[in-house]
Structure formats: C-alpha cells, structure tokens
Amino acid sequence: MEKQEISKRGFWEILLPALFLSFTFFIFGPLELYISNIAEFWFSLGDVLWPSVLAGFLVCMLLFLVGIFLRGNWREYYICLLIGVGVALYIQGNFVKTDYGVLDGRAIQWENYTSTAIWNTLLWIACIVLPFVGRTLFKKQYKTGVTLVSGCVLLVQMITLGTLLATTDFSKNKNDDFYLSTKNLFTVSRNKNIVVFVLDTFDQRYLEEILRETPEIADLFDGFTSYSNAVSSYPFTKTSMPLILTGQYYKNEQPYNEYITEAYRNADYYRKLQNKGFDIGIYTNDFFISDETKGMFLTNGEKGRTFVKSSVALEKAMLQFCGFRYFPHILKQYVWFYSGIFDELKATSVGDPHYLWDNIDFYESLKEEGLTILPDGNAYRLIHLEGTHPPVTLNGDITVAKEGQATPITQGRACLNIISEYLEQLKKYGIYDHTMIVVTADHGELGHRSFPMFMIKDFEERGKLQTSEIPINNSDLMPTILDSIGGDRNIENSVSIYDEESMYKIDRKYYWHETNEPNVDYLPDMIEYDVIEGEDFCLTGDVYTKQGIQTFKPYIYEIGDTILFNKDYTRGNYDLHPYFQSGISHMEWNNGSMSETRWSEGKRGKMRLNIGQTEDLIGEIQVEAVYEPPQRLIIYSNGKTLYNKEVFSTDSPITFKISKDCIQQGVLDLDLEYPDALSPASQGKSADSRELAFRFKSFSFDKDTEQ
Predict the structure, then answer these.
(1) At what angle do helices 114-137 and 139-167 cross, to 10 degrees?
(2) Residue 458: which of 706, 224, 293 has the closest Cα?
(3) Is 452 helix (H, G, I), strand (E, B) or coil?
(4) pTM of the predicted model, to two decimals?
(5) DSSP states of 585-642 as a string?
(6) What letter does residue 62 receive in the DSSP assignment?
(7) Which of 194, 349, 408, 584 has the smallest set of CB atoms within 10 Å of its CB?
(8) Residue 448 near residue 207, CB atoms below 8 Å
C-alpha cells in the first residue's frame, strides 16, 4: 500500500509540471493571443483551438514519459527544470511587455536592446534556478510546493481563458463572405484599359535614388510623367488604401468598419466606370473593400468560405507568434514574426484562389500565364503589390537576395522591372497606347511616411519620362482617371492632376496616427497637418478623436525651455515633432522604449516656434552624434544666415544668435540645411536609406543677455 501511494504521488509530481509547461505555451499562449487580436485574423477559433489542444496534449505526454523513465535525483532535477521553464514562460508572456514596434515586417534593431537582453536573461536564469534552490533548502515542503505552484497557475490560466472565451465576440472574424480572388488578374481589353499599380511603401526618394544609380530604368517608362511632389494623407496602409479606393477620408467620426462600408456607398466612382463599359478588378487585401462593392462591381469578388490551407502550417505560425511573445529576449530574433504570413494560408473551396500581394508570385504568374484579351468592353485593374514594404528580400533582377543583402532600393528596382514586364506585354499585344497606367504607392517610408511615388501615362502618351512638381495628393487619382475617360470628375477635396491651376489651390491635409490597438473600433487620435512647400508639415491644431474634434494651439514655446525628444508633445505623435515641420527622422526604439534623440533626415529641415514676443535670442543645439564628420550645418531665418560651419564632434554645443527682426508676429521660423548628409545605404553600411547628418539631443532658445 505504501509503495502504491508513493507511485500515485510521483505520478502527479511529474504530470502537473509537464501539464503546466505545455498548457502555458501550446494552449493558453496561442489561444490568448488569438482572442486578444481576433479582429486582425481571418480564420476561426476552431482553426486554432484543436491544433493547439492536440499539440499541448502531445507535448505534455512526451514530457511526462521522459519524467517517468528518469530515476532518483535526475527525476527531481527534471521536475525542477519543468517548473522553472514553465514559470519563466508564464511571466515572460503575461507580465514582460517589451515594445518591439509593429510586427509588420520591418527589421528590429536588436543591438538597441542591450540592457533588455541583460535583465531579461537574468530573469530567466532566476526563474529556472529558483526551483533547484527550493529543492535544496526546503526538501520536506518542496514536493508540495511543486504541486501547489503548478496547480494554481494552471487554474489561473484556465479561468482567464474561460473568461475570454465567454466574453469575446467571435463574429469579428467571419470568413464566409465575399473575398477578392485572382480572377481576371491578367486580362486586358483591346479597346481601353486603366491599370493602377499600388506598390506598397514605395517612397518617392527611393525612386529618385534608383534613377540616379540606374538612369536607364527611365527608358522602361515610355510616355510616363513622374510627380515628385505627391503626398499621401495617412502614414499607414490601413487608412491610405481606402482613401485611394474611395476618395473618402477617415477622421474617427465612426468605427473603422462602418467607415469602410459607408465610404463605398458614398463613392459612385465604380458605377461611373461601369457606365463607361469597364470590367472592374481590384486586387488587394479583403479588409479594404466592402462586401457590397465586391458583390456588385468587381469581376474578382467571389462569395465563398475561406478556410485554412494547412492546419500544420497555421499551428506553426501561431507557435512562432507565441514564441515571439513568450521566449526570452535573446531567443526572440530566431522566431522574429511577420504578421503577413497568415494571409499565405488562405484557401477556398469554390472559385479562383485568394489574391496575395506577393511581388515574386505576381511576376512568375505574369511570365507563365501572360496577359490575355477580353472578348469585349474595357478593363480597369487596380493591383496592390507588396512593393518595398519590409521585409525586403529581392535583388534588382527579381531574384531572392541572400539574407541581409536586400535593401528598399534593390527591391524597388525589382518592382519597377516587374511593372516593365507588364508594360512590354501590353506593347506586344499592340494595346499600350490604348492603356492608361498609374504606378504609385499607398504611402512613403522615409521621414513622415507621406511621400509616395506617383507616375502616370495617359492614353496615347509616348516619349521620355518627364517630371512634374505639381503638388498632388493620392486622393486625386479618381478624378484624374475620370477626367481621362470623359466622365464626371467631381470628387470632394480632390481634382484631376491635369487641372494644374486647381491643383495649386487645393489644401493638402495629412493625418498622422499611430497603428491601432487590437480589437479597437476606432484609430488612435489623428493629428492634422497642412502640407505646404513640398515637404513642410504645419500643425493645424485639430486632433480627430473618437470623442470628436479637439483643438490645441500649436508651436507654443516658452523662452528658456529645453526641447527634448523624449516628451510626448503631441498626443502620442512620435514621427512628427511638434517644432519640426520637416527634416527630422522618426523616433527609434531603444531597449523597449523610444530613444531620447533623433537624427536629422535629408538635406534640409524647418522649425517653427510660437514665442509670442519679439526680442534677441541665443539658440543652442546639443548633438549626440555627427554622421561621418565633418558635417556642415547652415541655419537661417527670414533671409538671414545665423550659422554656417562644419561640425566635427559633439564636444561642445552649437550656438547661434537670433536677432529680433527674425521673429515675425511672435513666430520664429528656422531653416536648417545639411548639405553633406548621406545615407548608410549609399556607403554599403546598412539598408538604411535615410540621409543622416546630426543626431539631435536637444534645442533651447534663451534671451541674449549680451545685448
């Protein structure tokens, strides 16, 4: 009887730690992540639940069997290890919140997280060592403690998971409605064609650098005009694409999903195209098109249930997602996670397959299938490709690069070559002249993420690539197309780019916002800017929140204050500084928090300070780093040069005098030039395409007491 009782106790001493560890990582972790981000996923709870339960069960049995075969101290050491790793996983996944930015494919600068790596590794060592210490110091209470810890944490996780399951609205991820297929992706008309390529994140400055390095690429775009002064109205695809597709702005007036539905109902653009005899195909993420539009207007809008192509692949992706959350910092780079991998698992039982925006997939299909001709009518195609969106993986010749060798420039060159193949096939069929072609981006990447490339060739246009500096907005695409086909081009806040006189009168607006939290119906506060003089962004003082419009007085500066880069000056606005209108780079992550310094970006910048009075001042700039010194810094205001010197080091601050006549109506405008700025990418040091000169630490302006 005594031996049997010991056997039962030993059974539970092994099973509970094995169950605790496997449940934490293989069941609780994936399911909690899924439920917490349900609005971002297209697949159902059942698709995740059963593979997770099965994986958890199998791992639990494997861990249990290993423990059964161990004897004596080795078994106890094994139990200590299970408890230590289980506790570390639980603490890491639920209580350690290191911010690595948005998992959208952009590489994480792991070298900026040195202190995180140290303390996080020490935390894991402590969690794993503690059970061994407990076994040594408290031999009598140890086994009871093992059972108690395992059982209690298991119970907490089960209650948490049960609560989430009971309170979550699982209708948010319906997958049985219309979807966007590949149907007619490569069909064109002998009559008229309008083809719009949206190359995600393709910055205008990428295009300019590509043309400088390989000017022969310009020859591929016969009849095109490049608009170098184009801006997007938003920094992210989630808001930029619906604006391009509907011409309707989103300003947090209603939940985002309601906006998508209403925007298409208010946009009669597709009805106008249909009335002109166009067969309409839009190839992008389902998320950006209302079901009503898919069913009524689109040749590639198909109704059918979307299901998971491979349960094993989905489970692998979920575990990778879970690993990025639950693993120690030093291992996270090996499970670096890009949320776009889930879209690759879409399949459907009827109709053509889901459209995916993959550059290589599109190119290979284009080469293999080739363009085909519709029997009658006209064709309208809008094709959204991944463009230069991270992670970048392509060489300029459309081959996959070795790890670490691709840059936005090489991938951008690959994208242009992909478009060139499409253009050559149009020419082969003799329909190039009958085709209007737009090559643009939803938004940019550098600086404010607001300068997309924009090239257009109208019907019957031929000749060398031209450049225009007309100030345009990506919302002007629709009226421009309607203008070319002779339709009613009346779209609010937008005009045809061919109406140059009107273009110069349009007020271009930019709405900065952060990416939204999972399962939140509204976007974060949207800060409004006027876009003036090309790259200058001027705060209007309006902020669009879900509670309505809030206002503040911009550029207020108290003389003597120090302008730092670690303060949340403009309501969570990290990429646009409240005193810089241009020439400042985005804030960077450092050990899970925003860096307290920022690089200059480009060859010029502009600051504005609403001082409210007129008097002589002394300006002081603290610089943390000078990129490839010496770097020349030129500062001028109201036509006067205030500073013009080469800066060799950060040993002393940069100081300059500002006479009171530079201050107009209480406002001080400073223009800064960085003529020697250059990018790490141009030197082969990294993929960073930003033109850098100075890493600013602080600015301050005080009264000139020497006067």
Answers:
(1) 130
(2) 224
(3) strand
(4) 0.85
(5) PPP-EETTEE-S-EEB-SSEEEEEEE--S---EEEEEEEEEESSS-EEEEEEETTEEE
(6) H
(7) 349
(8) no
